[in-house]
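re: that complex we talked abt at group meeting.

here r the seqs, copy pasted straight from the sheet so there may be weird spacing, ignore it
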Amino acid sequence: MNRGRAGRVKTVVYSSPFVPAEWIAAHALRPRRIRPDPAAASPSAGPLMGVCPYARAFMGEVLSAPAAGAAVFATTCDQMRRAAEWAGRGGGPPVFLMNVPATWQTPAAARLYRDELRRLGRFLVHLGGEAPSPARLAETLEAYDARRAALRGALGTLSARQASEAIARFDLGEPPDAHGPAAPDLPRGTPVALVGGPLMRGDTCLFDTLEKAGGVVVLDGTESGARTLPAPVDRRRLRDDPLMELVDAYFGTIPDAFRRPDTALYEWLNRERAASAARGIIVWRYVWCDMWAASAARLRETTGLPVLDLDVSGDPGGLARSAGRIQAFMEVLK
Amino acid sequence: MSGSPKRLTMEQLDRLCRRRQAAGVPMPAYAGPLERHVADGDRRLLKLLYDDSAAALRLWNFLLTEEDRLHEARAAGRKIVGTMKDLGTVPVMAYALPNLVAFYPDGAWWTPCVMELSEGLFGIAQSLGLGDAMCPVRAMAGAFVNRAHFPLPDLLTCSVGATCDDFSAIAQRLESLGYPILWWEMPSRRQPDPGEPAVTLPGGFRAPESQVALVRSELERVRAALSELAGSPLADEELAAGIREANRVRAILGDLRRLAYTADPCPMPALEMLIAEMLAIHFCSDRAESVAVLTELLDEVRRRADEHVGVLPAGAARLFWVNPVADLRVMNLLEDCGARLCGTEYLFCHALDAIPQDVPPMEALARMALADPMVGPSADRAARVVRDARALGAEGVVVSRIPGASHCALEGTVIGGIVRDELGLPVVELEVPPVADPLWPTLKTRLEALVETVLERRKR
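got the structure back, here u go
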């Protein structure tokens, strides 16, 4: 691992699921996929009106994180693309904007993603990291794949809140034994799917709010949930071309609202929803998030299920204000 | 025309039009009084002020009859291409094939303004889950559904990637409703890394060669789709000819902008100049006629500049305008407040710059597409605004925000900051909804304050 002046391993923070942790780790740097603190979305973190609260919070967190060696933003939404520019001008750590193509059905799109990984690699080396050999990259991928397999196995034994927190800890690079014990008695209630954008720090109390209202999340399709876990790697192909295997695992499989077309997202949702027996869908979206805002009506059409379009502002008390809507929604589903 | 040019109400303009018709003045077949369009619901026309020239009347008629042209094209057996988001690239390709006609469904974003919300497009969009937190371009989705504003295209293309989220989300919603879309990738333009092979794009931005190559390969997919639709291959020779024709439009527009934005008194109102600039992106569905319309407008502006006459008093505050307005009437307001346009950046400056003719045509188009100010950093865009504002002698800058647009909040702040730092000019940000009447006092006050500041600074 590369160490900074204070002898600590340099940390690279990011929030997008399309930034592979193992690519950063293979460069001997510490990846930390963070859930930003909503309090970081302060007025000093750029203009308020029209800016997605999550983008503001991540931007604010980056600007106030002098300990971070660098921050990686992704172009998966316009707001984050522009937040990267803002953060890059603000005196925080070095910023890398990774171009994640919206299209995915052409070889050119996958090549662009691969080339962006290479460019990120050069940035990481410039930061003090070490370019990995193919063997080292393959080993790192295998190690992450094994840890992720263990995580996947554990998720089924945990409550939705515990599962979300376990993924958050995994994303921060904490060891798997920090996941905590399985819940002896999983919460019960009307099963719902939670779908949408990423959660911020502390947002897992949403799961409690739902349970208090008589519901239980049986499918976490937020950007912070299992939906965005990359696919398991193919061990045989891994040895031949570990970088392309990384591309396939992330770019080739993660379904999301920004992808064009977004068919993979709806295929994933239909499959997982059917398996989960969810009776309703809650769309978790930030105000000014157009991608998920446009998805709520489609979810209603494609699933035929009741949908609660929950627009969240990230401000203190915002979730409490939504509690009434959640409660009413759960009553409808009973 | 006789006497000094002036701005007229629609009623006055129509009276003039009828007099010309009665006198047998030659006019294009599509020309006539604008009240025809009011009868069709374009009620905003009643509240606008217009330039009194025959050239401007022709411009307005050309703009307002586009839907008719599209229907005529279909009736004549031509195929219609709906090009979305790229603002200036794919139409150059489509018009290189004689049996294709291209238009921007995006243009429906002005329909709620022109029809003063009577057309119900936002309501339809809302019913599709595209609410008012999104850019007014959501009206486009309503126009696809009610089929009352343009014929359904035979092919739809849309650039995605480094584009605004509103548009990407709305276009995806369209596809979910059964309108297949050819998506093509537009990467986020970035500065070349040290030592990385790079290209200077039209307009002066720089980009890595690898990004140009990617866009070129994406445009090749578009070329294949256009060729299939047309039933004949779109060869390089035809493309090169199409680029030459597009450059002809851009050259006329370049002359028009230079003269209209620099001559004093102001020879052509801001509203007509906005419409004229828009012709560059898809020629208002008739490339040859757009050349004729712009040429007549340029001739009129030349005449006025030579005679030192204009539509506004000499010495009006010279403002540079950033972003198009959702409500056209605001361009009148700017002049009512004692200002004039001296330059613009309406989000499609790449459609105004000459397309390179010294490189293979697909390479030229890729460079042009990547020069889109929307796909790069806001600082790039700000640098262009600074450059143009300085060259055109701007005394103030207006950044007009588009309500709900994903790019506007951070971008406006970045552009405003850079303009203040580098030019020391006063900057005002406005948000202009499709029908801005309720905000009129606020908008007026802010523009008047800017004009007062500009005039006060002249005394220093």
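couple things i noticed - Residues 11-132 of chain A form a domain with the Rossmann fold fold (CATH 3.40.50.11890). The longest helix of chain A spans residues 134-155.
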